């Protein structure tokens, strides 16, 4: 019998925002896999680090860090092959995924290569979406709101149209699109209703009204949330420093 | 000094999908509050039950269970008053919230009444959105997909328009709108791309292709996920019984 491939959501970054189930599966794992940059630490591994058992076999999936580029086919072909070889011996492989494995996650590249051949279990995680809303201290959606999640790399015309048609809007993957998105939201009269969060739930997190943000670019793990149809919105005093 | 009001996301139902932080705060709480129906058990309390310390003071917020009706002002006025009285003594109040407190959650009714007067901390939770995607074994969003979340009670014309403009679609609060939504999705040629999940992650969960579902109505905690732009979609064999 072959092993099971687990896709484990780790949440937005604070290790305490892992689920009990994620923690249990990681701390009893024999083999873990995770995305890693070509230099520096793997973010996914760093979230799970305190739960990793000693002696666990680690399979880093090294993906060059280039914003807005989807990973090369060959990298995931190779990783899938290495993981399949472990699964075929009957051992499980626990894949560490930032946020949730199925919400804009790179786990899908393993999933599409392996789900026909091996048992898969997905453990959902806290997404950056609600982690950012928590930090901005505003309900994300209520009652019969329509919510739309928009990737920042899309062109202005598309983003404008999607924003027009929702009550609650999240723009993900802000990164190098920050200046353009700020200009667009200013033009749409929404800049004073937008909040900005980077690295939500981590010690180095930043929480700002978008209008107060000076930077021209942002890290990949950053988000803009727009609260339409409300009075001009202010952050609670603890954040306004 | 006054106490802190915590809004704690409990995740979709499986107690193991609580975060470590939720578990810590609940198991050390002196006072908890939670929504409860006028008869029967509170869903939120049932998720947290195994973590509740003995002797904890409980403040049930009794909300009559009527689908698609937003809770009466007086119920939350009363609950906020009772909770404020505890916070004023310097004690914290831990509010138990199904899913995530700020994602279509009733916690907002307490938040809007108390956030000006007391310190608030929100602990995000796993939403039903990604819990359902995990059960349907399909990535919810990938690459630069636009995702839209639509409440089922909205009229057909609105739902049709929102679906047309997104790559990934979730319809929440399906409930008594199931038959209407099925007819609409059939008309739009999307019925064979829609998955249905009720009570995700609980022992009594149901996972179906929407096209295979016979029922005319669904429980409140049910969701339809639509995977557009894909080949006709099938559930993995373990679910097709």
UniProtKB/TrEMBL annotation, chains A, B:
Gene Ontology terms describing biological process: cobalamin biosynthetic process; methylation
Cleaved signal peptide residues: none
InterPro entries in the cross-refs: 4pyrrol_Mease (IPR000878), 4pyrrol_Methylase_sf (IPR035996), 4pyrrole_Mease_sub1 (IPR014777), 4pyrrole_Mease_sub2 (IPR014776), CobI/CbiL (IPR012382), CobI/CbiL/CobIJ_dom (IPR006364), Uropor_MeTrfase_CS (IPR003043)
Domain Tetrapyrrole methylase per the UniProt entry, residue ranges: 4-209
MF (Gene Ontology): precorrin-2 C20-methyltransferase activity
Keywords: Cobalamin biosynthesis, Methyltransferase, S-adenosyl-L-methionine, Transferase
Pathway given in the UniProt record: Cofactor biosynthesis; adenosylcobalamin biosynthesis
Annotated PROSITE patterns: SUMT_1 (PS00839), SUMT_2 (PS00840)
Entry's family note: Belongs to the precorrin methyltransferase family.
Protein name: Precorrin-2/cobalt-factor-2 C20-methyltransferase
């Amino acid at each position: 019998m072959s092993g099971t491939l687990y896709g484990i959501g780790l949440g937005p970054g604070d290790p305490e925002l892992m689920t009990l189930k994620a923690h249990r599966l990681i701390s009893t794992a024999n083999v873990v896999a995770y995305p890693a940059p070509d230099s520096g630490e793997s973010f996914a591994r760093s979230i799970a680090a305190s739960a990793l058992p000693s002696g666990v076999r680690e399979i880093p999936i090294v993906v060059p860090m280039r914003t807005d580029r989807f990973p090369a086919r060959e990298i995931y072909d190779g990783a899938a092959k290495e993981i399949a070889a472990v699964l075929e011996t009957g051992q499980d492989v626990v894949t560490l995924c930032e946020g949730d494995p199925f919400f804009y996650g790179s786990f899908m590249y393993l999933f599409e290569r392996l789900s026909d051949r091996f048992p898969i279990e997905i453990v959902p995680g806290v997404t950056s979406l609600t982690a950012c809303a928590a930090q901005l201290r505003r309900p994300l959606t209520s009652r019969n709101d329509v919510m739309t999640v928009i990737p920042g790399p899309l062109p202005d015309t598309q983003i404008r149209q999607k924003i027009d048609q929702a009550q609650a809007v999240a723009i993900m993957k802000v990164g190098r699109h920050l200046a353009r998105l700020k200009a667009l939201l200013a033009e749409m009269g929404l800049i004073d209703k937008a909040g900005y969060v980077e690295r939500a739930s981590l010690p180095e997190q930043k929480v700002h009204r978008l209008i107060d943000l000076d930077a021209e670019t942002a890290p990949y793990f950053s988000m803009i949330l727009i609260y339409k149809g409300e009075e001009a919105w202010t952050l609670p005093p603890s954040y306004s420093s």
